[in-house]
């Protein structure tokens, strides 16, 4: 029953927020439903003070402008992920 509820929660998060979240120890791997490649994942690490930091990987290196604007300057992971979601969505759909 507990595993079923966890799976339901994970699926709800994916549908509602657009990211599949896998927990690996104290790290969280996020993959957008709009990701262009399977390797386009973000890895966040939970620190002792309950803060989260983005760990560098090939995909995060490609987002340096967004990281600077949303994480470094504004200190907002939700704004960063929202911007990324809209950007990936716009790349896959043509609304203009």
Automatic annotation (TrEMBL):
GO cellular component: kinetochore; mitotic spindle; nuclear envelope
Keywords for this protein: Cell cycle, Cell division, Mitosis, Nucleus
Compartments reported by the entry: Nucleus
Primary subcellular site in the record, as a coarse category: nucleus
Pfam families registered for this protein in UniProt: MAD
Gene Ontology annotations of biological process type: attachment of mitotic spindle microtubules to kinetochore; cell division; mitotic spindle assembly checkpoint signaling
Domain of life where this protein originates: Eukaryota
Signal peptide stretch: none
Family: Belongs to the MAD1 family.
Protein name, per record: Mitotic spindle assembly checkpoint protein mad1
């Amino acid at each position: 029953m507990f595993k079923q509820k966890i799976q339901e929660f994970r699926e709800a998060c994916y549908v509602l927020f657009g990211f599949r979240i896998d927990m690996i120890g104290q790290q969280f791997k996020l993959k957008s439903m709009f990701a262009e490649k399977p390797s386009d994942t973000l890895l966040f690490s939970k620190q002792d003070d309950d803060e989260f930091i983005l760990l560098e990987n090939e995909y995060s290196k490609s987002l340096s402008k967004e990281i600077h604007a949303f994480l470094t300057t504004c200190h907002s992971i939700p704004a960063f992920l929202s911007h990324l979601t809209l950007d990936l969505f716009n790349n896959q759909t043509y609304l203009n």
